Amino acid sequence: MRFPKTVRFRKVEAKIYGKSKAYPFYRVCGYVAGKRRMTSFVTYSEAKAAADKLVRDLAAGLQSAALTAKQASDALVALQTLEAHYQATGKRLTLAAVVDAYTRATTRLNGHTLGEAVDGYLSTVAPVKRMDLGQAVKQFIASRQPRTVAKDGKRPQLSAGYHYNVSMWLREFARTFPGYAVCDLTKELLNAYMSNHADVAPKTRNERRAVVRLFLKWAVRQDFLVATHRLLEADGMARESAQPEDIEFYTPNELAAMLHAANGQPDYKPLLPVIVLCGLAGVRLQEAARLTWKDVFRVAGHIEISAGKSKTRSRRLVTICTALRQWLAPYRKCDGALWTQCLDKFHSDFNALRESLDIPARRNGLRHAFVTYHFALHA
User: Fold this and answer.
1) Which of 15, 78, 360, 363 shows a CA-CA span of 20 to 30 A to 30?
2) Closest to 206 (Cα-Cα) out of 178, 245, 261
3) Residue 111 CA: distances (Å) to CA of 56, 97, 108, 114, 201
4) Which residues share a beta bridge with 316?
5) Distance separating alpha carbons of residues 97 and 100, to the nearest angstrom
6) Angle at 374 between CA 368 and CA 378, to 5 degrees
7) Domain 252-377: which topology?
8) Of 90-94, 206-210, 327-331, the least confident
9) How far apart are CA 60 and CA 64, in angstroms?
């Protein structure tokens, strides 16, 4: 038999080369994917069978013909690995997609392996726990509740009224997105939430933004949200410049009418000390409700507001003016708290007193009255 022997099928051909003294094997040679490929066999029958298969595969356009035996073995191992990954995770990946993603990643790692990059990422970024938004809000509210309770007669860390408002707004926030997890939140969702409150004042919107911001920071600490979430960059979360509100205050005649009415009516008499401290000393209502008579008379000529009772948590002394001294004189021998009931009771009784005198409601009008006239006298 003369060699080389040509094996043809349609327009594809391969050659079989015989044995030689230097190389005692039969060789099958053909062009696969534009490259010359040669395979060795011990017997002619094996070489002939391989050549016949090669030309038929190439004529049929089979891509597997372009693989060497080792490449074909590696491809099978890779496919088996991908199948095991699918069984474990439910995510099906193609070999081509995996190779593309791997090569793109390693190109950007400047010599580091993909394993090193993953280890570094997991060591610095906490895995996010998927938590329903409504459940997360409940946990947030519950975590802050103990801070509203005063211990050993001291002022609580967190105002009960403020906690109530925060809780109410966050429950409404969670109801806006039923079925969402915290990690599902997007900038678009936050924009939609803020657009629902377009009819309220800018100051109120800013307060709502602050509450959402407070919750998201807590969610990051709980690993419910990645630290790099960028949700606060949403247009709807940008703080607005609120226009200054009109300052409302009671006139001297209105304040005098309320003082005399409260002094002359037993039902309103408990209001009197709080009204005089707010209207004639500028003490905040919440601060006045925390004071005792010892705080009022301990320091001569001044009302002492300790750090534990001050809004700013810093001690200050408030000067007692002549009019205030006269109104406080009947209480010098009193002991205990100035106001012994809840603030809701004060608001209810004060509104009733004001309405009985046909005096309109003025937001924070007592403290504003003191500040306004004090500035006019001493500026």
Assistant:
1) 78
2) 245
3) 43, 21, 8, 9, 55
4) 305
5) 5
6) 150
7) hpI Integrase; Chain A (1.10.443)
8) 90-94
9) 11
| Residue 77 amino acid letter | V
Residue extents of the structural domains in the chain? 5-66, 76-123, 133-237, 252-377
Q: Tell me how far apart the 2 most distant CA atoms of the chain are, in Å.
A: 135
Please tell me the distance from the alpha carbon of residue 285 to that of residue 271, in angstroms, as a whole number: 11
pLDDT in tens, 310-322: 888 899 999 999 9
Tokens of 163: 């906690």
Q: Of 43, 67, 41, 48, give the one whose Cα is nearest residue 9.
A: 48
CA dihedral 266, 267, 270, 276 (to 10 degrees): -90
Exposure b/e, 64-101, CB count within 10 A at least 16 = b: ebebeeeeeeeeeeeeeebeeeeeeeeeeeeeeeeeee
CA 320 to the chain's CA centroid: 47
Tokens 């009772």 identify what position?
Answer: 309
169-188 pLDDT, tens digit each? 999 999 999 999 999 999 99
Segment holding 231, helix H or strand E: none
